[in-house]
Amino acid sequence: MTTALAATPELAAEADARFSAIADPVEQALAALRWAGETFGDRFAITSSMADGLLAHLASRAIPGVHVIFLDTGYHFAETIGTRDWITSVLPITLVNVTAPQTVGEQDLSFGPKLHDRDPDLCCEMRKVKPLAQTLAGYTAWGSGVRRDESPTRADTRLVDWDAKRGMVKVNPIAAWTQADVDAYVTEHQVPVNPLFEMGYGSIGCAPCTRPVAPGEDPRAGRWAGSTKTECGLHT
Ligand code: SF4
């Protein structure tokens, strides 16, 4: 077992400057992930929405057996659960499947049905934000697949950042990647991809809060469509 270093803002800033200087997007991502594995050992985990296996593929190359946290909200599309199982069966990762304290049925009894339509922030808080916070309490650093080109709210994403809210280092290995970079890697390495993308979805979330997007539309426009909500609170 690797002895984990303490996470500090200075450590994150130094790593961000060092790995941001690497021009090749794949080499940049792998270098940042290797560093995270060497620095934090088994106190480092990545998260995945199971939209695809890209980050899990990269992370498992850099850190075989890497912990991959999936927030199993109880509201996922069957295709997303299938993609989770596909990724887990073909990549050398350790799945950390995280569920909310209440099942969807229990939540319906406590708060009434379709809380996601009436108060999506509360629903996300109970089914995503708190379960992730409790899970990440067992780690020193975490990684996500957030990219700058996904939305204006993500345009300033750093490669290695300080997550002040959680007091952790946060690694965003593909922060600088473009959609073309993603497509090229997925094709070259035959990375599992959620079949919902073939059905017009641009970004994959819980079924009640995700719709397909029109050609040319912002890929995240299908998330919480019709409301002002744009993020579930995991990355903000
Ligand atoms: S995305 Fe929708 S269904 Fe999923 S936790 Fe948030 S509000 Fe609930």
TrEMBL record:
Which biological process terms from the Gene Ontology are attached to this UniProt entry? hydrogen sulfide biosynthetic process; sulfate assimilation, phosphoadenylyl sulfate reduction by phosphoadenylyl-sulfate reductase (thioredoxin)
Protein name according to UniProt: Adenosine 5'-phosphosulfate reductase
As given in the record, the signal peptide range reads: none
Q: Please name the gene that encodes this protein.
A: cysH
Pathway field of the UniProt record reads: Sulfur metabolism; hydrogen sulfide biosynthesis; sulfite from sulfate
Q: In which broad location class does this protein mainly occur, judging by the first location in its UniProt entry? A: cytoplasm
Q: What is the lineage of its organism?
A: Bacteria, Bacillati, Actinomycetota, Actinomycetes, Geodermatophilales
Catalytic reaction equation(s): [thioredoxin]-disulfide + sulfite + AMP + 2 H(+) = adenosine 5'-phosphosulfate + [thioredoxin]-dithiol
What organism, scientifically named, is this protein from?
Blastococcus aggregatus
In alphabetical order, the GO MF annotations are: 4 iron, 4 sulfur cluster binding; adenylyl-sulfate reductase (thioredoxin) activity; metal ion binding; phosphoadenylyl-sulfate reductase (thioredoxin) activity
Write the record's keywords in alphabetical order, separated by commas: Cytoplasm, Iron, Iron-sulfur, Metal-binding, Oxidoreductase
Give the EC number. Answer: 1.8.4.10
Gene Ontology cellular-component annotations: cytoplasm
UniProt lists the family membership as follows: Belongs to the PAPS reductase family. CysH subfamily.
